[in-house]
Specification:
The complex is a heterodimer of chains A (441) and B (1224).
Chain A: H1 2-14, H2 24-33, E1 39-42, E2 45-50, E3 53-57, H3 66-81, H4 86-100, H5 106-111, H6 135-162, E4 165-169, H7 183-188, E5 195-201, E6 210-216, H8 224-228, H9 232-236, H10 264-267, E7 273-278, E8 281-283, E9 285-286, H11 293-299, H12 330-336, E10 344-351, E11 360-366, E12 378-383, H13 393-419, H14 431-434
Antiparallel strand pairs in A: 1-2, 2-3, 4-12, 5-11, 6-10, 6-12, 7-8, 7-11, 9-10
Helix pairs in contact in A: 3-4, 6-13
Chain B: H1 3-10, H2 13-16, E1 42-46, H3 71-82, H4 86-97, H5 107-140, E2 143-149, E3 152-157, E4 166-170, E5 178-184, E6 190-194, H6 196-199, E7 205-208, E8 227-231, E9 243-247, E10 250-254, E11 259-260, E12 265-267, E13 271-278, H7 284-288, H8 298-332, H9 353-367, H10 374-392, E14 407-408, E15 420-425, E16 432-443, E17 446-448, H11 454-469, H12 475-480, H13 482-494, H14 502-513, H15 539-551, E18 556-559, E19 566-569, H16 573-585, E20 587-592, E21 596-601, E22 609-619, E23 627-633, E24 639-645, H17 647-652, H18 662-674, E25 678-687, H19 689-704, H20 710-721, E26 726-737, H21 741-750, E27 754-758, H22 763-772, E28 781-785, H23 795-818, E29 826-831, H24 832-838, H25 844-853, E30 856-860, H26 864-878, E31 881-886, H27 892-897, E32 900-904, H28 911-915, E33 918-920, H29 925-965, H30 976-986, H31 988-997, H32 1003-1008, H33 1024-1048, H34 1063-1085, H35 1091-1113, H36 1116-1119, H37 1125-1130, H38 1134-1161, H39 1165-1174, H40 1177-1180, H41 1182-1191, H42 1200-1223
Parallel strand pairs in B: 15-27, 15-31, 27-30, 28-29, 29-30, 31-32, 32-33
Antiparallel strand pairs in B: 1-8, 2-3, 2-4, 4-13, 5-11, 5-13, 6-7, 6-12, 8-9, 9-10, 14-33, 16-17, 16-26, 18-19, 20-21, 21-22, 22-23, 23-24, 24-25, 25-26
The chains are: A alpha+beta (441), B alpha+beta (1224).
Binding site for Mg(2+) (chain B): 426, 428, 887, 891
Family (chain B): Belongs to the cation transport ATPase (P-type) (TC 3.A.3) family. Type IV subfamily.
Membrane topology (chain B): Multi-pass membrane protein
């Protein structure tokens, strides 16, 4: 629009007189189009600017919208000729004035009412950047991606390498031999002794905090029936205690009073426990702050206490201490964040001590949880973390692969380009020139 | 009433007219039709409309309605229409099912988008129908004067007109229904009718009443008028009518000559009275009109195929999923105690896995519904509406004169504009303005008239330019043209448009001379003007020439008060041009009486003298005779026969001593013809008194004969008289082409489009126009397929004619096959009657293959129905996109039949525009409409649809993969809201901006390189290769997105605090990757970034984060797992960001590699041009740029450029000869 401003200035310079008796705003408008030989119609009169004198013509003709039209017309004319220089602009404006001098009758204005307004938008002439994938850009992009990705990959791999992880599958080993044929019976029986002791060796120094996880296999926490079977309202506030409609089939007890927390997820809460000791000295496992902060603060109410939980005929997993509010039951909170995949780890606790290399850790496991029925495995995991989280070689490898691929593409592109170069914008590559029926070349 | 009007009323044309004013004296009906039998049962009680208000004669009212719906039927019908789209039906089912627990999503997330989509489409339908309704109302409320009884007439709206009413129509009014003509302001009951809206013919037709009704020529005469008409039932045949009229105890036969058809216009006649026969939808025009078909573009139809494909894919994966679920439920679920398998509903019943499987199938069908983009239709609709807005607002397609902008009336064909293969064009009002200008003449072997025709000017300039362009190779030629080159070259710098900047030349010329133009007269030669002709060698011949111009016609003068001169009411515009020319030469035709023509002659005396010429006979023009003559007696008693006609006809009839000027005249006629002018030869014959009277008695006898061969007899007798003529000269009239038509045709031809002209006009006119707009040129081999008179042929003869036509076609095809010269071009000219045979089922394919081999095709004398049939033949026979363009109601059929109908919103009625899909003010805007908007829209829509499928496959399949990890239970990894927003907000705006703003090359380049247009007809951007390429890309992306995420988030802690990821975190991360991947993909697809694209693409990604933050802030009851997810866990985790980067790059890498390798080693045309533009090579190497521009055209054999090429070849040949002779 700077162009327009310039034009207004020029128009002003060329303006002979102000048209008389026009309001302030109109006078401003009048300035815009008031030129030698030009006509201006405002409300009831047409004023003509001629030889520096104002003349009034055709007093009966009324029309509106002429002013804008003229500006546009001139602007359009300017556009069409694409004259960037100031000197030319002056010439052009005077030409425009001459050409638009004639059509001043009312019918022209009426006809022009359908005329589309000029704007760069409607004419699809918005300034645009039109990036072109030149070979230079292509090579730069590929090499750049390669150069960025390979260090990231290396860094991830390095971080992953530094993570120390101990994984111990204990489900089968913790079942006494005599029950090996009937592991489900073993786990379901209330008489069997489920305590089981395991010894783990620390391969490398594990700096605190060392995270304790349990890992389950083949457990479909993401099954739709399972995922849906909870009531966020009930978990959040005691006022919604009876809001168990989404919790079926673990919504209410047989007599109809609501179960808190209701639903299959809570009902199947994991209930193995671990006790750690090194050299007969117990290692303290912190169970604080293992859940997501927001869950504890907002999702699980501090005024909601377990009620009627696990006292039906069918007992699922762990029982809850009904004197502790849900917001403090961090194991439950962790468990209720359903995992995305049927194999998952969940945080059990944290050991706030360094574990030296080759230390033997004795783990006292209360093997309560029934994974035997559905053929799942249970593992105990001790792991440190790095900036990428746990041990995760895949991320680094993937980065290296993609980075390498980019470099490979860059090289092959360069090679192809050296073998078969194409000058940019070479018209001989146009289809009508490549076509043998074409004229020449 | 004007004085001329009064004169006119007294005229009895039937005395003068010989051929068309036949009046049958047959009182008994003959022929095979049995009135009263089936198909001929209509009975009309004239002047007793009350009889037709009740049964059994209650015929329909004159109210017409072309709307699709009314208020009551709108909802059910429109909804039905909407759900005829498969995708919509599917979503409707999904929405209904979402109310049950089977659905994996909440009901709102299914219903809301569907309601939005359907509502939007229905609103559009309603608006369009409302417009139609308003148009109908306008027609229905036109006023007409109806007899109210007791001889009183009063104005009533059209819709009140009833069968049996007597109506009075005044001059220049349309007929409200089909009428029986009773009487007119002329004493002999004839009237002139313009049937432009029916057949597009501009010359007036004469209709005449029965003799018996002639006295009914004033209002009061209808007081006691009564009669009964028995006639055929409503039918669509415009040119037939069978009926009889019982009046005064007698029975008279009726034929089409007494029938005035609805939508034709009364001309040159002050008023007529008529009885209404057919009203409203029963009128012949309305019977002829077909419901406007809803058109769908090729791309959209293909899109449907893809949707079917995706639908089958959807069913397939749903089946896999449900089988998986059934197996899982049967074998695994009983063991999974945590799901309480014993305590379940049908949906998860391990004891009835098959039932659960079936339930799950429905769930899965809904779950994977994201494969079928629901927002696709809406987005396309939005994009098309915006594209249409751009067309409507294009200032380059706005006509200053009429004030009409271009208008896209239906927006669903935008992309089809980019794929047009054949253009079928009307002539009158489309290519020409239907205005004739007297431009040149040849008198007594000398040519007068210095002004050049448009064709000549353009050819000259083009030649000069072309020679300039080739000066490096042919300096010998260009040296001679140096002086012409320079001014042109300068101009071409200023106007970057086309090479043929004809208007610039013409206007600059006009500016210099400042000559006021007289309508119809562009002649300029001082030798003839202002009486100078008297000094010419053959002054007496010139005098005679002017007199022929002034006398030999059938026009009526009407004084024009303002200018003091006369306006002429003429049957054809040529005649008008002649009369204007005669007036300018000083021979002003000023009065006509029953027997005489008065001409005010300024010369040779120098001051005006009114001379009287007695008109003894008038042998009028018809297409068979191709000539017209008058026999006059001048004031000296000399009897003369003055004749004008087609040159070939006249030359055959010259006397031995009348051929003095034949050789010269022939030469000039050829020149004129080549310049695209319509030519007529003028001749005369001196008659002796006895010679005339002998002939006249024979003629009178023939004229009064009452038998079927009367016309043949008349023709024979006339022929006897029109012999032994003396040639005087020839006239050349320019049929004014509309502005820019030749250039536009040239450009369109270069863009590879074929242009057919279908016209209702006569063959000669059509051929002349063919020349004028360079569809024909000299040296082109014309194949004329015609038949002899085919009226009154019985079955066997018709068969013979059919065989004859077939043979002609076969011969022509053979000829084309045998042609060896690569520059040879063929033109096919065929007339309507022959076309009727050619369009028969057994012939039409041969006809089509012949037509396709011809460079240009001109069909003349075609009826509206034939226009539609030809269009259908081309459309179905070639299987390519056709575009029909026309301006009159006679073009409606073809406009509706063609894939795209374009109406010219000029001066004619609005019927064509109403039926069209696009309307433009002038033919020349067609170039921009197709080459710029069509090209853009095609590419935009094609890319948009491809991308749409890509993104929905990329997204939808991740849902499927995840199923495999959830035991096919139907759980989705994403939050419901993510999925709603995916199509509605997060990815829709970028794709809309792609569809609206993408430009591969700028509009100037589109126009400069017409060959780029061929990317559309060749369908380079929406072929199966490309579609499946995009789908494969989608599949690849889905795999990358899902498996990279799953592998990385498999079981490990992702936060530094040791927490592992849950479903919400994995889902959000995966979704982030999708958003990045698809939006980066679209950025790679675009080649044109304005701030809008930047805003939408990057804004969409940004919006996702904003949404995630905001969604995380609402109550956890609503947001569930997504509560605080971004702020608390995702954003602080580096792995979240590194996964996003990795997946985004990995997804787009193959596509990036593909396009960069393709562009660098196998570029397409627009790539190269983009580069040239980008590096400003066009500015640096102007020569190369011009050369490429001139090469960037399809091989064509029509248009200016080719014409000029041919001429250059010709010149070069001559030059070579000259050189060789000099060498020798």
């Amino acid at each position: 629009m700077e162009y327009c401003d310039r034009q207004v200035r020029i128009a002003r310079r060329k303006c002979c007189h102000q048209p008389p008796n026009l309001g302030k705003r109109k006078r401003r408008a009048a300035f815009v189009v008031w030129e030698e030989g030009d006509d201006l119609d405002l409300q009831e009169a047409i004023w003509t600017c001629k030889n520096g004198q104002i003349q009034r013509r055709h007093p009966s003709i009324r029309s509106g919208g002429e002013i804008e039209t003229k500006i546009e017309k001139r602007e359009k004319e300017g556009k069409k000729r694409k004259i960037p220089k100031k000197k030319d602009l002056v010439e052009m404006t005077s030409k425009g004035a001459m050409s638009s001098g004639g059509g001043d009758d009312a019918s022209a204005a009426r006809r022009n009412s359908k005329k589309p307004q000029y704007s760069r938008f409607t004419q699809q002439e918005l300034p645009a950047c039109k990036p072109i994938l030149t070979p230079g850009w292509v090579i730069t992009i590929f090499i750049f991606v390669g150069i960025i990705f390979i260090p990231i990959g290396l860094a991830s791999l390095f971080a992953s390498e530094r993570v120390v992880e101990i994984v111990d599958q204990y489900d089968k080993d913790c079942v006494p031999n005599k029950y090996s044929e009937d592991m489900v019976g073993f786990i379901q029986s209330s008489e069997t002794n489920k305590t089981c002791s395991r010894t783990l060796t620390v391969p490398k120094l594990m700096k605190s905090p060392v995270y304790v996880y349990y890992q389950l296999d083949n457990f479909y926490q993401n099954h739709r029936r399972y995922v849906k079977s909870r009531s966020d309202k009930q978990l959040r506030s005691s006022a919604y205690e009876k809001d168990t409609s989404t919790c079926s089939p673990e919504a209410t007890t047989a007599d109809g009073s609501p179960i808190v927390p209701c639903g299959l997820i809570a009902w199947s809460l994991f209930n193995d426990t671990y006790g750690f000791s090194v050299n007969d000295k117990a290692l303290e496992v912190s169970k604080k702050n293992i859940a997501w902060k927001s869950d504890q603060d907002y999702k699980f109410g501090s005024d909601v206490f377990p009620k009627n939980f696990q006292n039906g005929s069918l007992i699922g997993g762990a029982k809850l201490n009904s004197s502790i509010p849900l917001s403090e039951q961090e194991d439950l909170i962790v468990w209720m964040r359903t995992a995305a995949l049927p194999t998952f780890r969940k945080l059990y606790g944290r050991i706030e001590e360094d574990l030296e290399a080759n230390e033997k850790i004795t783990v006292e496991i209360q093997n309560n949880y029934n994974t035997y029925a559905f053929g799942g495995n249970k593992r105990l995991v001790l792991s440190t973390t790095s900036w990428i989280g746990g041990k995760n070689d895949f991320l680094g490898v993937a980065y290296l692969l993609v980075g390498g691929l980019c470099l490979f593409l860059a090289i092959s592109f360069i090679l192809m380009y050296v073998i078969k170069p194409r000058p940019l914008g070479d018209p001989s590559f146009l289809s009508w020139n490549r076509n043998p029926a074409g004229h020449f070349n | 009433m004007s004085p001329a009007g009064r004169i006119r009323e007294k005229l009895r044309w039937s005395h003068l007219y010989s051929f068309s004013c036949l009046r049958p004296h047959v009182k008994e009906l003959e022929g095979p039709h049995s009135l009263g039998g089936p198909g001929f049962s209509r009975i009309i009680h004239c002047n007793q409309p009350r009889m037709h208000r009740k049964k059994p004669l209650n015929y329909t009212s004159n109210y017409i309605s072309t709307t699709k719906y009314n208020i009551l039927t709108f909802l059910p019908k429109a909804i039905f229409e909407q759900f005829r789209r498969v995708a919509n039906l599917y979503f409707l089912m999904a929405a209904i099912l979402s109310l049950t627990p089977i659905a994996p999503f909440s009901a709102v997330s299914m219903i809301a988008p569907l309601a939005f989509v359907v509502g939007l489409s229905m609103a559009k339908e309603a608006l369009e129908d409302w417009r139609r309704f308003m148009q109908d109302m306008k027609v229905n409320s036109r006023k007409v004067s109806i007899h109210q009884g007791d001889g009183k007439f009063d104005y009533r709206p059209w819709q009140k007109v009833q069968v049996g009413d007597v109506v009075k129509i005044e001059k220049d009014q349309f007929f409200p229904s089909d009428l029986l003509l009773l009487s007119s302001s002329y004493e002999d009951g004839i009237c002139y009718v313009e049937t432009m809206n029916l057949d597009g013919e501009t010359n007036l037709k004469v209709k005449r009443s029965l003799e018996v009704t002639l006295p009914l020529n004033e209002d009061l005469a209808f007081k006691d008028f009564a009669g009964i008409i028995r006639c055929e039932d409503p039918n669509p045949n415009l040119y037939t009518f069978v009926g009889k009229f019982e009046y005064g105890g007698q029975i008279y036969a009726l034929d089409p000559n007494q029938i005035l058809l609805r939508d034709s216009k009364l001309r040159n006649t002050a008023y007529v009275y008529g009885v209404v026969i057919f009203t409203g939808h029963e009128s012949k025009v309305m019977q002829n009109s077909t419901r406007s078909p809803s058109k769908r573009s090729r791309i959209e139809r293909k899109m449907d195929c893809i949707i079917y494909f995706l639908f089958s894919l959807l069913v397939l994966i749903s089946l896999i999923s449900s089988i998986g679920f059934a197996v899982n439920t049967k074998f695994d679920m009983p063991k999974a105690w945590y799901l309480q398998p014993k305590n379940t509903t049908n949906m998860y019943d391990p004891s009835r896995p098959a039932l659960s499987g079936i339930f799950h199938l429905v769930t899965a069908l809904i779950l994977y519904g994201y494969l079928i983009p629901i927002s696709l239709y809406v987005s396309i609709e939005v994009v098309k509406v915006l594209q249409a807005t751009f067309m409507n607002n294009d200032l380059h397609m706005y006509d200053e004169e009429t004030g009409h902008p271009a208008q896209a009336r239906t927006s669903n064909l935008n992309e089809e504009l980019g794929q047009v293969d054949t253009i079928l064009s009307d002539k009158t009002g489309t290519l020409t303005c239907n205005q004739m200008d007297f431009l040149k003449c040849s008198i007594a072997g000398a040519s007068y008239g210095v002004r050049s025709s448009e064709v000549e000017i353009a050819a000259a300039k083009q030649m000069a330019f072309d020679l300039d362009g080739e000066d490096s190779t042919h300096s010998g030629v260009s040296m001679n043209n140096c002086s012409i080159e320079d001014p042109w070259d300068n101009k071409s710098v200023h106007f970057e448009g086309s090479e043929i900047e004809l208007e610039a030349v013409v206007t600059s010329k006009d500016g210099k001379e400042q000559k006021p133009l007289i309508k119809g007269f562009s002649f300029e030669d001082s030798r003839l003007m202002d009486g100078n002709w008297m000094n010419e060698p053959n002054a007496d011949v010139i005098l005679l020439f002017f007199r022929i111009l002034a006398i030999c016609h059938s026009a009526i003068p009407e004084p024009n008060e303002e200018t003091g001169s006369f306006n002429y009411e003429v049957e054809s515009p040529d005649e008008g041009a002649f009369l204007v020319a005669a007036r300018e030469f000083g021979f002003e035709f000023c009065r006509r009486t029953q027997t005489s023509v008065f001409v005010r002659e300024r010369y040779p005396s120098g001051h005006p003298i009114e001379r009287e010429y007695k008109v003894l006979n008038l042998l009028e023009f018809n297409s068979k005779r191709k000539r017209m003559s008058v026999i006059i007696k001048d004031e000296d008693g000399q009897i003369l026969l003055l004749c004008k006609g087609a040159d070939s006809i006249i030359f055959d009839r010259l006397a031995k001593n009348g051929r003095t000027f034949q050789e010269d005249t022939t030469r000039y006629l050829n020149d004129y013809g080549e310049s695209g002018l319509r030519t007529l030869a003028l001749a005369f014959r001196k008659l002796e008194e006895h010679e005339y009277s002998a002939w006249n008695s024979e003629f009178l006898q023939a004229k009064t004969t009452i038998s079927s061969d009367r016309e043949a007899m008349l023709e024979r007798v006339s022929d006897m008289m029109e012999r032994d003529l003396t040639l005087i000269g020839a006239t050349a009239v320019e049929d004014k082409l509309q502005k820019g038509v030749p250039q536009c045709i040239d450009k369109l031809a270069q863009a590879g489009l074929k242009i057919w002209v279908l016209t209702g006009d006569k063959m000669e006119t059509a051929i002349n126009i063919g020349y004028a707009c360079s569809l024909l040129r000299h040296g082109m081999k014309q194949i004329c397929i015609t038949t002899m008179n085919t009226e009154s042929l019985d079955q066997d003869d018709k068969k013979a004619v059919g065989e004859n036509v077939l043979m002609q076609i076969a011969n022509a095809s053979e000829m084309i096959k045998l042609e060896e010269d690569p520059h040879a071009a063929f033109a096919l000219v065929i007339d309507g009657k022959t076309l009727a045979y050619a369009l028969e089922d057994d012939t039409k394919h041969q006809f089509l293959s012949l037509a396709v081999n011809c460079a240009s095709v001109i069909c003349c004398r075609v009826s509206p129905k034939q226009k539609a049939l030809v269009t259908r033949l081309v459309k179905e026979g070639t299987g390519k996109t056709t575009l029909a363009i026309g301006d009159g109601a006679n073009d409606v059929g073809m406009i509706q039949e063609a894939d795209i109908g374009v109406g010219i919103s000029g001066v004619e009625g609005m019927q064509a525009v109403m039926a069209s899909d696009f309307s433009i003010a002038q033919f020349q805007y067609l170039e921009r409409l197709l080459v710029v908007h069509g090209h853009w829209c095609y590419k935009r829509i094609a890319q948009m649809i491809c991308y749409f499928f890509y993104k929905n496959i990329a997204f939808g399949l991740t849902l499927f993969y995840f199923e495999a990890y959830t035991g096919f239970s139907g759980q989705s990894v994403y939050d419901d809201w993510y999925m709603i927003l995916f199509n509605v907000i997060l990815t829709s705006l970028p794709v809309i901006s792609l569809g609206v703003f993408e430009q591969d090359v700028s509009s100037e380049v589109c126009l400069q390189f017409p060959a780029l247009y061929q990317q559309g007809p060749r369908n380079l951007f929406f072929d199966w290769y490309r579609i499946f390429g995009w789908m494969a890309n989608g599949l690849y992306s889905s795999l990358i997105i899902f498996f990279l995420n799953i592998s990385i988030f498999y079981d490990q802690a992702f936060r530094v605090e040791g927490q592992t990821s849950d479903m919400a975190a994995v889902g959000a991360t995966m979704f982030t990757c999708i958003i990045w991947a698809v939006n980066c993909q679209i950025a790679l697809t675009m080649s044109h970034f304005t701030w809008i694209q930047h805003l939408f693409v990057w804004g969409s990604i940004f919006t996702w984060y904003i949404f995630l933050i905001l969604y995380g802030m609402v109550s956890p009851i609503i947001s569930g797992g997504a509560f605080h997810i971004f702020v608390e866990s995702l954003a602080p985790a580096p792995i979240y960001w590194s996964v996003t980067l990795l997946v985004t790059i990995a997804c787009n890498l193959p596509y990036l590699a593909h396009i960069s390798f393709q562009r660098s080693f196998n570029p397409m045309d627009h790539h190269v041009i983009q580069e040239i533009k980008h590096f400003k090579k066009d500015v640096e190497d102007r020569h190369m740029w011009t050369r490429e521009r001139s090469k960037a055209r399809q091989k064509t054999k029509i248009g200016f450029t080719v014409r000029v090429d041919a001429k250059i070849r010709h010149l070069r040949g001559r030059l070579q000869k000259k050189y060789s002779s000099m060498v020798v």
